[in-house]
Amino acid sequence: MSTRARPTGRRAGGDDGSAPVVAILMTDVEPAVRLNAALEALGMATVTISPMDDVRGDLRRVRPAVLVLTGALLDTATVALVRQLLWDNVAVIGFTDVSDPQLLERLRDIGYAETWPKPVPLDDVVDSIRRRLERLRLASETGLVGESAAIREVLVKIEQIAPVTSTVLIEGESGTGKELVARAVHRLSPRRGKPFIAVNVGALPETLLESELFGHEKGAFTGAAERRLGRFELADTGTLFLDEIGEIPSATQVKLLRVLEEREVTRVGSGQSIPVDVRVVAATNRPLREHVEDGGFRADLFYRLNVLSVYLPPLRERREDIPLLVRTFVTEFSALHDREFHGISGEALELLVEYPWPGNVRELRNLVESMVVLAHGREIGADDIPRAIRERGGRRLLPVPVGPLVQGSERAQGRELEFIVRSLVELKLQVEELRRRIDLEQRPVAPAGWVQEAHPAVPMAGLTEIMPGHGYGLVRGIEPRDATPPATVITLGPGMTMAEIERVAIKAALRDTGGNRRKAADLLGIGERTLYRKLREYEGEEGLEGFLPEDEA
Known about the structure:
Layout: E1 21-25, H1 29-41, E2 45-49, H2 55-62, E3 66-69, H3 76-87, E4 91-96, H4 101-110, E5 114-117, H5 122-142, H6 149-161, E6 168-172, H7 178-187, E7 196-200, H8 206-214, E8 215-216, E9 228-229, H9 231-234, E10 239-243, H10 250-262, E11 264-266, E12 273-275, E13 279-284, H11 288-293, H12 299-305, E14 308-312, H13 322-337, H14 346-354, H15 360-374, H16 387-393, H17 404-408, H18 412-441, E15 452-456, E16 488-491, H19 498-512, H20 517-524, H21 528-537
Parallel strand pairs: 1-2, 1-3, 3-4, 4-5, 6-13, 6-14, 7-10, 10-13
Antiparallel strand pairs: 8-9, 11-12, 15-16
Helix pairs in contact: 1-5, 5-6, 13-15, 19-20, 20-21
């Protein structure tokens, strides 16, 4: 008996503060039931859905954070569903019948977040789902997008340091999201309901900086027509974010250190100390320790700020997050500018992945907005990428050491020699890349008389990740949200009987129609009762889990 959707009444990580939901598709009933029981025993909200039901409708109603597919991972309808859920930020976990590296790679390409071979280690799967839900919660609260190890480390660090009141130093290049981290620390702390005041100290002139931070009394200086509260007083009981702290002048560094030590501020033009209860989070876009060694920043202030530290890696150090960021920004700007998204070609996405992004996430975000607006009504291709990115991102030249003769010579022969050496290196890289592509795309040929399982006509289509195994060399494009799924292909071997062909055709039709027997019968040109009888004959065969009549399942 198939199990219908059993919503728990709690939404997936809901805006209403409800618990996230784990949806389990009952294609393979035994592991699905075991997993559901284990998750419910831990108090997690779960929903079980039969493949015979309206799967998409049930998922829209319950809005899961995680979907577990227990079988038929490469069916056309399943592949289309996984692609759709990528746009909805739903993590899809799949249970495979075999542990084959090529199969696992293919599933990752489609968009599966995790795959587990059967029999699945239940405790490990449950622990993985628990940790994934925790990461999804943190990502939702922080606004940091990414699945790389670097971003996971940042999220863990934020959760660890948020509950305490110690000062925090955030280091990272411009555009990496330092203010997002500062706001996340505040939002996850006991001070979440108190003020969060952000000030870019590097943008303030030295003459006004002390007044902005500590306030001033009326008449303290020319133009001080009235008393003004400083940022420390405004942030009392809350969090003060000091951006670009490395640009603060030496005289102000001394006063800032005193405020941090004494927890008191003195307004400009006043001799009275005012107690403040403020947690300071500072950020810098250059290594502050090096600034201390250069003599541009006080060592004692550095140590006072660097009680807890967070390092935000540049985008070039987490290139695997670029497709996910692109998808996130496309969703945002398509809605903002009312522009329909028609996809990004693999060549264009590869250029984005290979570009070093000196402006980091901010630069990528601005570029995606421009592409969404200017490429309205068509797929975004390589020609839509700015020339500077195409030329810099598409070339993977290695530094080539040359002798002093070439280095010091301005003659044409020296330049020609360097050009030849660089060309040979580039040619070697291209040959290695071509060899890797051939190895990845080769598939075993079906022997005579053997029927290959039905599979999507375009395997790995819709890839939004970087192909593993070779840095970031091979990248597939991003398809639009409602892309038409590929038709199912049946591979027929020599010597097949009509009964075998009929069986494979019925399986393919059921998969294309999501298990709807009436639609499958119409597609095959047979009666529904005939199809029902055939399914009873196929009972127990692999690939028909969830498609058999309910009284025979």
